[in-house]
Amino acid sequence: MSNGHSTDETRIRPVEAAHIGDLIRIGEETNLSPWTAESYLDEIKNPSAVLLRLISDDNTTLGFVVGRTIAGGEVEIEREAEIYNIAVVEIDQRKGCGQKLFDAFCQICRDNEVTNIWLEVRESNNKALCFYRKNGFKHIQTRPHFYANPREHAILMKLVLK
Asked: How much is the pTM?
């Protein structure tokens, strides 16, 4: 018997309003920059938003990803996407859960002909930086004092989808 939730039975599902409490709890557990329930509700209503959750076989939320696909300009030469948050409950980290969420987000991006995925990450978040580099993201720019509580630089990263 494993000491976590992650099994082959984990599945990706859309986030609904009833799951917002899970997202807030996981965000707090993993030290994400906090979002309010209202912020998540606004995202759920946004047609360009992508909110996915990874669930166990007993429908427990193990993690989530929140982002958007964004059309570029009047003449859509490139479509872009941005990841705002990706988080997995601590007990199920380093078991491929974050990768499943990321892969599902990327598949939606490919289905929507997205060319580039952007994100910002705290300069001190080595776990996330390693994950994003492993998945092909490149450091584009450092944004000084981007985050508050604690005040910290952000690393702007970009992934070019093939």
From this structure: 0.88
pLDDT for 44: 96
Q: Tokens 């030290």: give the residue.
A: 31
pLDDT at 78: 73
**Overall average pLDDT of the 121-144 stretch:** 95
What's the mean pLDDT when you consider all of the chain? 89
Centre a 10 Å sphere on the Cβ of residue 120 and count the other Cβ atoms it contains.
Answer: 19
Domain ranges of the chain: 11-160
Q: What is the pLDDT of residue 7?
A: 45
Question: Under CATH, what is the fold of the domain 11-160?
Answer: Aminopeptidase (3.40.630)
